Amino acid sequence: MIKRLDAANYSRWDSYVETMADATFFHLSGWKTAVEQALGHKTYYLYAETEGHITGVLPLVHINSLLFGNNLISNAFCVYGGIVASDEASYLALDREACKLAEELGVDSLEMRNRVQKSPDRPHKELYVTFRKHLEDDVDKNMQAIPRKQRAMVRKGIDAGLTGTLDDNVDRLYQIYSESVRNLGTPVFPKKFFKALKDIFKERCDIVTIEHQGKAVASVMNFYFKDEVLPYYGGGSAEARDLKANDFMYWEVMRRAVEKNVKIFDYGRSKVGTGPYSFKKNWGFQPEPLFYEFHLVKAKAVPEINPLNPKYQLFIAGWKKLPLPVSQFVGPWLARDLG
């Protein structure tokens, strides 16, 4: 039987996610709360139940935007998603229900953000890769594992006197992150979204901020799940480049993770051929293809809502020129639909 998640079953859902090897941080029920409360989207968190036990889960977000289309996504605002199931029957039942829901909602497409290929017969984007790496138990061994050129960048940050600290609120992160994405030509999410994530995920989430002479120059929000750390929303100020603050920041996250006995560093998703893709490869991480698979409903082709799409180039160029306060005011209205 397929059911829709309600608050009374959040803990059951999350307990199941914790036990499944292929489940990710982005399958946790906290995303449902954050997306509904901070971004205002309708969610459909479906689960399969057999003899009183959850046997499969599928988080879905419906984003209906005049600018960016009408799509049902698992999981929106996340790099991973899709169906997690204990058996084939539960998997197929969830898949059928998702396709049925997509048809009922009249969306352009249903998107499953799988880490591995699940449905070879469905079209998928060959655009994104992820970068994951096992960490050594010893901090120094992890430093030595960074390729020489990038390791030199980290040491320059250390020599510049950079220090890392944990922030208990999102204020400095938001200021730095919004500047960073503005410089990339991308609208920033509303501040309340970051606050919601911090409040909801509690000990699963922290914010590492890098300071130079007492001033914040880089900051990143990190998620912790099972034995993994995922630095997710991060950026640097104008001063960060010369200080090598971004390299130092990721090293600081890695160093702190090792001290927590974290085993896997998930550097996250990047588009093939972009600057972030090269940056992560320079750290010695090997790209793994992601399989974002689509069930097309009204759409004739896979949606191309990404900065590499030529039709967005004029917008991106103009956005980069906006004063930061303007981008912080207008950006959230657009970013809430960029799932």
Give a written overview of the molecule:
The mean pLDDT is 93. The radius of gyration is 20 Å and the shape is globular. It is 38% helix and 29% strand. It folds into two domains: 2-128 and 290-308, Aminopeptidase (3-Layer(aba) Sandwich), CATH 3.40.630.30; 136-262, Aminopeptidase (3-Layer(aba) Sandwich). It contains twelve helices and 15 strands. With 339 residues, it is of the alpha+beta class. The strands form two sheets. Strands 1, 2, 3, 4, 5, 6, 7 and 15 form an eight-stranded mixed beta sheet that branches. It has a seven-stranded mixed beta sheet with strand order 9-10-11-12-13-8-14, with helices on both faces. Helix 2 (30-39) runs antiparallel to helix 7 and helix 5 crosses helix 9. The chain has helices at 10-19, 30-39, 88-105, 139-145, 148-159, 171-184, 191-201, 240-243, 245-259, 275-282, 313-319, 324-335, and strands at 2-4, 42-50, 53-65, 69-74, 84-85, 109-114, 124-125, 128-134, 163-167, 205-212, 215-225, 228-236, 264-271, 287-289, 291-296.
DSSP strand (E) fraction? Answer: 25-35%
Q: Span from first to last CA? A: 29 Å
Question: Which class of the largest domain in CATH terms?
Answer: Alpha Beta
CATH architecture classification of the largest domain: 3-Layer(aba) Sandwich
Question: CATH-wise, what's the superfamily of the largest domain?
Answer: Gcn5-related N-acetyltransferase (GNAT)
DSSP helix fraction: 25-40%
What are the low-pLDDT stretches, counting only 5+ consecutive residues below 50?
Answer: none
Radius of gyration: 20 Å
Main beta-sheet annotation: 8 strands, mixed
Overall average residue pLDDT:
93
Q: How many strand elements? A: 15
Structural class: alpha+beta
Shape: globular
Provide the domain count. Answer: 2
> In CATH terms, what is the fold-level topology of the largest domain?
Aminopeptidase
Listing every helix as H and every strand as E from the N terminus to the C terminus, the arrangement reads EHHEEEEHEEEHHEHHEEEHHEHEEHH
